[in-house]
Amino acid sequence: MKALFEFFKTNWAYFQMVLGAVSLALLTAGALSRKVLAITLNTMREELRKKVLYFLVLFAVVFIAFSGAAAKVQPGREGEAVAQAALFVVGLFGMLVTIFSATAVLFSEIRSRTIFVLFSHPVWSFHIIMGKFLGVTAIVFISVFLMGAVLVAYLAFTPWLALVGTLIPAMALIFFQLMLLTAMCVLGSTFLSRITNILLSMVLFFVGSGHSFFKGVTDLMKVAVVKYYIQVFLFLLPDFEKFAVRSKMFDPDFPFDATYVLSAMGDAVFRAAVMVALGIFFFRLKEVGTERWE
What we know:
By secondary structure, the chain is mostly helical. The chain is built from 13 helices and no strands. The C terminus is likely disordered.
């Protein structure tokens, strides 16, 4: 048993890749449904009409443009300081775009009663939840892509253009982090009010972003029962910290290679698929006509 445990521990990164590949195949198969595609496109159109999305992305672009001021913080490592500051801005504003978009898509359908229009057609909970998830994920991708394009364009006029090769996988990890957050918000929207969902998503995101810190604190606890339940909670909670590599990607001792990136992506896709499946399950249980959505 110990040998088996060690085998899984040693090769866990590769298992994450396999789980991610299988989950991606399942999500792709679901996305090929015409009903899912229709709901996805409609969700994208609804989100693109919201001015808040444009303001958030615009603010992020402005902050990225002024990230050059961070070069003065680390003399001799100006490029790294600018890259870290820009990635922080992308992650922060990406998180805000994700939470405010993903928590609204299902709630707005319930509040405006248009959910009943959907139910009047031959659609299942699977089509609705999958379409909403993919629609918001597409919006998040567009937002991250635009912010990343601005960052690359900015670096093109500086001596630090060579950093783009390192920034692209870091930006990709930010997108997968936000995709995972999207799945968590969509799941929460099936049984929580929007305000509760926003607050809880933010709390869980920040706790998950400090995963190693909370794990270290838990290891110091003396009460075995409390320690056990917190460890289970941290195991189930997505480790958002692994996707935020801005402070570690220039460290020569940090294994920021293809294996790290692909395993993190695989973990994100697998967990997102599980959350979407749970969202479909809870949404099917919900009596939309009688429950309060406030």
